[in-house]
Predict the 3D structure of the following.
Amino acid sequence: MTLKHCLNATDLPSEQLADWGTVAAPLGDRTSRLRGMVLAENDDGSEAGIWECTPGKWVRQVMDAELSTFLSGHALFTPENGTPIELKAGAVVYFPPNTKGVWEVLETTRKSYLIYKSR
């Protein structure tokens, strides 16, 4: 396997990230647009990379376990039956498998992520 890296993920221009389209389950009139860069993929569906999202609100669609480190922006995540979590640069969040909830991106947000399959 070849080492892959992104030297400065925080300052990487958005135009250098792949256009991943819009979120699958938007809530309200504003639909978030996604961009990203996959750094690694495994046959089991596990993946690591950089994720960027424009403002909007939607239902979380990823049901695998995820570890994210927020690099920039401002977002809220409200777990199902839970209290909103404020996410800004420096925040690290672990989403257990099957975490349900609502994302609200208040300003374009960027994170590094690792999504992996639970056994």
About this structure: The mean pLDDT is 92. The chain is about 0% helix and 55% strand. The radius of gyration is 14 Å.
